[in-house]
Amino acid sequence: MGKIEKLMDFIWLLNSQVNSLCEPMMLTKNAVQQAREYEDIFKRGEIDREEAVIIRKELENSLIYIRETGKKLNELEDELFAMLENLTEAIKTEEG
């Protein structure tokens, strides 16, 4: 049981990660809805070229950041899945 202490820093970090994603998840839902609404404005051409260029650059920057964050979250998901599989197998081995 003493080895769990070594893992608690990781568990604490993981729980912090999960908690820190709750608010961004809610904000993302709102942003998705707004993106759909603004996309209609862009399609109808209701924005002038100068504004469109500024918005385009901001959207590109956001997309880069979101993609990179998504990649890191996918890496974390893969690592956690592997850990869970290994722990599940270890538990089965002990029970058997």
Tell me what the structure shows.
It is a single chain. The protein is mainly α. It is 91% helix and 0% strand. It has two helices and no strands.
Largest sheet: none
Outline type: elongated
Strand content: under 5%
Class based on secondary structure composition and strand pairing: mainly alpha
Low-confidence spans: pLDDT under 50, at least 5 residues? none
The level of helicity is: over 70%
**How many E-type strands?**
0
Figure out the total of helices. 2
Mean pLDDT: 90
Distance between the termini: 20 Å
Report Rg.
Answer: 21 Å
One letter per element, helices H and strands E, the order comes to HH
Task: Provide keyphrases for this structure.
96 residues; elongated
Short summary of the structure?
With 96 residues, the chain is mainly α. It has helices at 4-43, 49-95. It contains two helices and no strands.
Helix and strand layout, with pairings?
Elements: H1 4-43, H2 49-95
